[in-house]
Structure prediction request, 206 residues.
Amino acid sequence: MTLAASPPPTRRTATRTRSTKEANIEVSIDLDGSGRTEISTGLPFYDHMLDQLGRHGGFDLRVQAEGDLHVDSHHTVEDTAIVIGEAFAEALGNKAGVRRFASGLYPLDEALIEVSLDLSGRPFFVWNIEMPEAIPLGTPPFDPSLAEHAIQSFATSAGITLHMRLRDGRNVHHIIEASFKGLARCLRDAVRIEDPGGIPSTKGQL
Prediction:
């Protein structure tokens, strides 16, 4: 008797776009990838942070963004984060079997970031990270204050409850990078499939 082969698991992927007078964004994501990234936003420091998100999250992430950087970096950063969040939510689907919750402490040299998240479907964001005064990073410049806005825009679009806290740190680059890496590692944990048959909520949906 020959047993029928099990169907291959469905990969959790999505592609989303956003086009406004301020920016044109295209994002594709594979939550079951291997951490391969292809990032181009016109802001090298932001590219570096989004690269951390994909690599440490274990996602295949492609981001192509063209924005009005001659005005400032705000529109490009915000719109890109929104589209990544939308793609993440679409790829996640009904969240059947995911771990849902994740948390941890993430160091980078002197910086230490605490991250806790819930793939709740209820966007809520708490950012207790006070940045030391710093000049913009990279060329064209990335305003360090936009790190909070980028992560908040992502969490809101993705429907995530997210708390982030600075435990220690003096170097702005280290603080921001530890924040993106910590977020990535928690997302990696939270999207992991533990029970393919069940949605981890007493409501029966997330």
Notes: The CA atoms of residues 37 and 61 lie 5 Å apart. The chain is about 30% helix and 25% strand. The helical segments are 44-57, 74-92, 146-158, 172-190. Confidence is low (pLDDT under 50) at residues 1-8.
